[in-house]
Amino acid sequence: MPGGVVVIGTRTVNLPFALAGARVRAPAAGGVTEAFKAAQADGTELVLLAPECASELAPSVLESARRAGRPLVLLLPGPAAAQFDIRPGIRRALGLEA
Asked: How many domains does the chain contain in total?
């Protein structure tokens, strides 16, 4: 089915996207480039890449996709982003903490 959203990541990363209706790919080690090129070839509009998969792609592959402009390619945040706590900054901004 062409078009839509493809997520390339681990099964854990892919699960919520699959539940939301995205097509998901959990390629074996070394299979990310093939999965990425297949998503490009089938008319996908948006490719979301998990960090562990994006690191397997050659920079030239990502640069070529960026220049092509379609599909739009976005990198998902890694585990470090999930550990970021914005609450202290909000409390300071509201004047609740010094």
From this structure: 1
Question: Along the 98 residues of the chain, how does pLDDT read in single tens digits?
Answer: 567 999 999 999 999 999 999 999 999 989 999 999 999 988 899 999 999 898 899 989 888 888 888 899 998 887 655 566 777 878 888 888 76
The DSSP code sequence of 51-72 is HHHHTTS-HHHHHHHHHH--SE
Strand residues in 1-98 grouped as ranges (E): 5-8, 23-25, 46-49, 72-75
Q: Is residue 50 part of a domain?
A: yes
- What pTM, to 2 d.p., does this model score? 0.76
